[in-house]
Specification:
- The longest helix is centred in the N-terminal third of the chain and has 48 residues, at 2-49.
- The chain folds into two domains: 1-51; 64-155, no CATH class.
- The termini are far apart.
- It is built from four helices and five strands, in the order αββαβααββ.
- It is of the alpha+beta class.
């Protein structure tokens, strides 16, 4: 009789524990589903708010024309080569153009090269530059501003 009573008590306690564990597992699943739904809603809201702006590679400006843009997405870096439509007389004017380009490519660090001759711009991609080509590039490579020093503009960097 004693063994039978202990066995009944053990089975009742064991059954209660199993029921509690199953109930908790069901509650955790329901809670997880609710959290997932809330997370999805937050992601949808954030994606609508924080969408990356669509950047038109060609900036409309009367002072310059962007000829070539090389994008390194993993570094969030753009290498911008622009052809000037006006004559730049000093560093202040070059800084103004570099600032305009940087403002267009918000969210990216930019290396900016300003040329006043399309042929010199194309020759600047050749390596190594021969003496004659180097002189042409040096003459027409007007200004340069790098991503790590955006407030600095180097005038005639090849001279």
């Amino acid at each position: 009789m004693k063994k039978n009573g202990c066995l009944k008590i053990f089975l009742i306690v064991f059954s209660i524990l199993v029921i509690i564990l199953i109930y908790r597992k069901i509650q955790v699943r329901k809670h997880t589903e609710i959290i997932k739904k809330q997370d999805l809603e937050l992601l949808k809201q954030n994606s609508q708010i924080e969408q990356k702006p669509i950047i038109d590679e060609k900036i409309l400006s009367k002072n310059f024309e962007v000829i070539e843009v090389d994008t390194k997405e993993n570094l969030r870096l753009k290498n911008v080569n622009a052809l000037l439509k006006i004559k730049i007389r000093n560093e202040k004017e070059a800084k103004k153009i570099c600032t305009e380009i940087r403002n267009h490519y918000v969210g990216y660090s930019c290396n900016i090269n300003l040329f006043d001759d399309i042929n010199a711009l194309h020759k600047s991609f050749e390596y190594p530059l021969e003496d004659k080509d180097r002189r042409i590039v040096a003459k027409h490579f007007i200004a340069m501003s790098t991503f790590d020093a955006p407030k600095v503009v180097m005038m005639f960097p090849y001279k």
